[in-house]
Specification:
Blueprint lengths: L3 H13 L48 H7 L5 H12 L6 H12 L7 H13 L6 H13 L3 H13 L6 H13 L3 H13 L6 H13 L3 H14 L6 H13 L3 H13 L6 H13 L3 H13 L6 H13 L3 H13 L6 H13 L3 H13 L6 H13 L3 H13 L6 H13 L3 H13 L6 H13 L3 H13 L6 H13 L3 H13 L6 H13 L3 H13 L6 H13 L3 H9 L10 H13 L3 H13 L6 H13 L3 H13 L6 H10 L7 H12 L1
Amino acid sequence: MTTKSGIFVRAFLHFHGVCSTSKLLHLSPHPLLPKFNFNFHFFQSPFSCYCRNYAYHTVDHCDDPQLFLQLGFTYIDYPLSVFPQMKSLRPLPSIIDFNQLFIAMCKIKPHPPFSTVISLSRQVQLLGLRPNGYSLNIMSNCYCRLGFVHFGFSLLAYRIKLGYQLDIVTFTTLLNGLIHIDKLDQSVKLLDKIVKLGFQPTLVTYGTMFKGLCRTSKYADALNLLRKMESHGHCMPDAVIYNTIIDNYCKGKFLHKALTLFTEMKAKSISPDVVTYNTLIQGMCTLGLWKDAKKMLTEMLENNIVPDIVTYNTLIDMHCKDGKVDEARAIYESMTKRGLVPNIITYNALLDGYCLRGEMDEAEKLMDLMVKDGCKPVLVTFNTLICGYCREGMVDEARSIFQSISKRGLVPNIITYNAMLDGYCLCGQMDKAENLLDLMVKDGCKSDIVTFNTLINGYCKSRKLDKALCLFQEMHLKGLSPDIVTYNILIDAFCKDNRLTFACKLFKEMETHRLKPNVMTWNSLLDCLCKNSHIDEAMALMRGMEKKGVVPDIITYNILIDGLCEAGKLEEALDVFSSLTDKGLQPDVYTYNIVVKGLCKSGSLNDAVELLLTMEDNRCPPDECTYNTIIKGFLESKDVSKALELVSTMRSRGFAAENHNIVLFVSLLTDSDVSDSDKALLQNFLKT
């Protein structure tokens, strides 16, 4: 029979081999380890689940150090003032008391002072207090949270030397440390060794592993671990474990796999909770599966699981992003009727929905309701309103919101400035955009790639290409690399300015910077070639595009078909048009209008009318442009009756004849080639 001490030694040899370190370090911190707090964000340590829960009180002074350490801390100053008091007590407080202090320090948010805890622990040892198992776990946790996992492993040797048993808390902490430094493969191997050595992982241990695997989207590894967990038998997965994997699948848009696990957990009598349903509803909403999301909500209610604020916020947000603000508002009303109080996330989602639809009056009303209900707007709220106003060209209103931000004690961020800059640029107010940029620099807000892209786009729209190029060069000086958006803006602008040579130079520059031109890039070049009647070059460019693996979209084909029609190559244009469905593309109203225009231009008016009729069958109803194009064709061929017949149909659909067609109607009244009966029809039409 293997002795306990034998297991400890074997365990240490196994685990110490996981990390690359040549020396066994005891409790003493590494001399290079910083003495002060590291501003890193880490996972919640699994060790904290075993520790006592402390309230976070802000205490200025406390005469009783014992009471003081039991309170919890918000700032590092307080525990640092407690520690000297504890050291001065005689007899000295026990190691348990110091452990409580260190545990409370490890819970200080948002940046626990792990390095300080390590330093204070060393001082405790110098006082002659022998660390216990919990002390070593605290130390191991601190090292791992700081990213020094090899120090955590070295403490295993010290633990064995002191005669303490290895426990699953220690191993869970080390697993978490490996996961934090992205050594997932080593963490999986370590877990296997833990099990082989006879230690039984807990739900916390497995939860730590699943969080790490899911965070890095290791779907197969997570599923394999789930099966291993079930096969070991001593610790079966619960709803939290399933929720972690289901959430991972939903975020990866593998909804079918998430639903399979959902069905599996119910079959195993593991009851889904509100988190499970919220996760699935979020996944369905992300994919636009509104009906499925509503069915899931119904199932949730039928199973007596009460939707929480997260459930409703998810549904509201996703409906708003899909432009279904009325449905989102109905969900909001349903939520309030159930007694749930909307929070800032609820209001921000609805505001975003109204702003995306350009319903700024409704957004203002909602803002008033929000304030009335005691929900204080945050910077995101104001950023949303500024974006909404700017999109609608209401720059003065946006500026008013912008100016009110600082009065409310808030500081504009890069998103705020970029939104305002975009508003000015869209309205062509480049002088105001430049002034705002100066203010942004003065306020210490560093410009980003979006800032430059916004300004470059503004200068391009204002046909100030030289200024756009200056900004483009300034980006490099500021250490910012242009992205695909930057190049697309410039290439499109130079193509529209018929400076194809320079556009092609930028195109080649993209490739040297390892930026792959996308379909928008190719479309800009193709459009320039077609508009300048370089059809052969355009066709060659199209072939090169496909050769590069870029799939043409409907806009690409619209450009090409239009170019062929304008070049008088109607048959080739019709061949391309006919091939669209075979390529998996659905012609849109612009495609049809281009072909209709080409047919009318060639005098094939009956074919144009026939194409108009097929539009309805193909679920692409004709618009005002379609009708007016064919009407113009009939008027130019002096076929008054057919033109008026189409006008009647067009009016019944709520469209009106364009001014140039009205001029043609009037001119035909004095045309000698038009019969008297047709002139009478024209007079009656013009009277109406």
